[in-house]
Amino acid sequence: MSEHVHAVHPEPDMVQLLTPEGQRVDNPDYPLDISDDEIAGFYRDLVLVRRIDTEAIALQRQGELGLWASLLGQEAAQIGAGRALRQHDMAFPTYREHGVAWCRNVDPLTLLGLFRGTNLGGFDPREHNFNLYTIVIGAQTLHAAGYAMGVIRDGAVGTGDPTRDTAVLAFFGDGASSQGDVNESFVWAAAGNLPVVFFCQNNQWAISEPVERQSRVPLYRRASGFGFPGVRVDGNDVLASYAVTRRALDDARNAQGPTLIEAYTYRMNPHTTNDDPRRYQLGSERETWKLKDPIERVRAYLTREAKLGPDFFDDVEQEARKLAEHIRSGCRELPDPTPESVFDDVYVTMPDELREQRTDFTEFVAEVSA
Amino acid sequence: MSDTPMTMAKALNEGLRKAMERDPKVVIMGEDVGKLGGVFRITDGLQKDFGEDRVIDTPLAESGIIGTAVGLAIRGYRPVCEIQFDGFVFPGFDQIVNQVAKFHNRSAGLVKMPITIRIPSGGGIGAVEHHSESVETYFAHTAGLKVVACSNPSDAYWMIQDAVADDDPVIFIEPKRLYHAAKADIADAPTALYQARVVRPGQHVTVVGYGGTMSTLLESAKVAAEDGIELEVIDLRSVSPLDIATVIESVQRTGRLVVVHEAPQSFGIGAEIAARVTEQAFYSLEAPVLRVTGYDTPYPPSRLEHEWLPNLDRVLDAVDKALEF
Questions:
Q1: What is the pLDDT of residues A189-199, one digit of tens each?
Q2: Helices (H), chain A
Q3: Domain hosting residue B27, numbered range
Q4: Same domain assignment for residues B145 and B286
């Protein structure tokens, strides 16, 4: 058995505004003036994105999707971060940010094409200011930095005009923190004082590799070496994730430069539907994290402190059922691409040789299927 | 266009200047491209005239240069990336192949990647290792990219402008040993970017090349002519897409074809041309398609490069073989 280097901070020093038991706590650095209605709105988001996830896993089990990357356990990090964005801010997800997509008003069905194999993304990132899912680990952080360079050149930073100032939010995971691209994006962001916030969901596992395999310091502390602030937040606390991201995005919009946020959370499901964590994870670890569930604590707060009754929770459940039905039927109705469409959009201007290949291919397909 | 003949380096500089004047979204980014004007001075004076926001000295990381160019393109910019030397492009390879090349396709055609990646390429300048590579084949093998190579000042001036204006990503190969070679006049109008050009007509053997090999081919044609052998010399100008029609038309007249490139032989541009000519002009061929290329070795120490590179003797030897077959 290999020896582990237990150098990662064992007692995470992190911002928390709602305890696992549902108690509001204050943090002077992250004051949060928020109404119970807004917290109820977060609850709704959390429940709905968990349902999106549950349905997608079921669809994969039924053979309707080839693969799914579950967000279970990471809902609060994603909803907190996603709701901190303004409409004209830009988000660069990995392939697991279904909760952020939800906050950007991206129809969950839009995400399914990639996993069903009907397209390779297939939407315009600028429509909802939510980039295509990026599967090569960490590559999108450089896209975020470059986009932020564009934001500066467009004069959309530090003007004081909230309808104009723009921030960029780059998502990645603990595994990606080792990638050159992520480290290069830190360099770019620091050297260019770019309006970008790096949001690392440390879900403790990069498929089978624990975070100790990536770092011997807590990930948020990496930022100091690059010259910008890093902060660790309880990623299972939607209020803290929201408050910390909101402040970092404000700083970015106000020309204060980048921030690294490490959202400390846990991947409650396998890496993807193809993974088998029994080979590398202790079941007891998952049981411990279950007690820190991101939804239960909000439910506890809303019940106990905001005095919301069963009607509210029933309504959310009702809405979740409708959403599930939308995903189930919509997924099956996603049109299969036509064979010749594989040649579409490879280029803006299709070269002659590709046109000839398309002709050969379509004629051949027609002949065999005749 | 210009009454003053200029070097390829100056022509590229002037072409980039025109591209920047024409479109305010054009930004140049790379290592040392600002005050220094690039190690080859191709961007000389541009930062002074267009400012630091448009001529950007980047941190020294090629994946970062390309990856941030992708983000700028999503934001509506038209980046021109300079890779300092051919051998340094590989840290950016993932971003080029997985992101730049595929983004338009992945977005169902909704987002364009109008990125030009300029790569000073090839050998012949006595450089240390990793400074003399021919990398075009890697990119020509990737769907979504276009790959072109200039071989003279006039083409350089026009091709760089057309590459920057193209909405598809273009790998722009610049043969560095021709940067400061002979000055030449700039043509009044460009030849279409993806079109090959017959630069010397002849009836005995078709000889095809691009970029840095073109000066060798023209010299070979001159020497061959002294023996009464007329080579038809074709400058491909674009290796992807490949204007094979111009090559086929020539081979149908000459029946003989020699393809020349500095890049290693196996699985290269020469192999692709041989395959297409065999498919499309089999009965016109009087001899097998022959290749004169770099060998399947690492680029040699510079003391050996003149023997290793396709040179006059090697090209003429292949011409003889094609004629004797």
A1: 999 999 999 99
A2: 36-61, 75-84, 98-103, 108-116, 125-128, 139-153, 180-191, 222-226, 238-253, 283-290, 294-304, 310-333, 352-369
A3: 2-186
A4: no
Give chain A's mean pLDDT: 95
Q: Do B95 and A120 touch (CB under 8 A)?
A: no
Q: Which residue has the tokens 């024409």?
A: B22
Domain residue ranges in chain A: 36-337, 340-370
- DSSP H or E run through A334: none
What distance separates the 2 farthest-apart alpha carbons in chain B?
59
Residue A11, pLDDT > 70, answer no
Partner-chain residue, chosen from B72, B167, B244, that has the shortest CB–CB distance to A146: B72
* Closest by Cβ to B168, choosing from A123, A149, A349: A349
Please report, rounded to a whole number, the percentage of residues in chain B having pLDDT higher than 70: 99
Using CB atoms within 10 A of its CB, is residue B57 exposed (0-12), middle (13-18) or buried (19+)?
middle
Nearest CA in chain A to B113: A348
Query: Which residues of B are less than 8 Å from A144 in CB distance?
Result: 71
Q: Is residue B192 one of the residues assigned to a domain?
A: no
In a shared domain, residues B54 and B97? yes
Q: Any bridge partners for residue A199, and if so which? A: A171, A261
Residues B83 and B164 occupy one common structural domain: yes
Residues B205 and B307 in one domain: yes
Q: Does A122 touch chain B (CB under 8 A)?
A: yes
Average pLDDT rounded to a whole number, residues B188-205 = 97
Count of structural domains, chain B: 2
User: Which two structure tokens, joined as six digits, stand for A91?
Assistant: 């988000």
Domain endpoint, select from B132, B165, B186:
B186
Q: Are residues B174 and B201 in the same domain?
A: no
Structure-block tokens of residue A304 = 């106990």
**For the structural domain made of A36-337, what CATH number should be given?**
3.40.50.970
A142 to B64: CB separation less than 8 angstroms, yes or no:
yes
The predicted complex's ipTM stands at 0.97
Query: Which among A147, A154, A348 has the least Cβ separation from residue B104?
Result: A348
Q: How many CB pairs under 8 A join A and B?
A: 144
Has residue A267 got a pLDDT over 50?
A: yes
Summarize the confidence of residues B118-137 as an average pLDDT: 97
- In this prediction, residues A210-218 reach a mean pLDDT of 95
* Closest CA of chain B from A340, distance in Å: 14
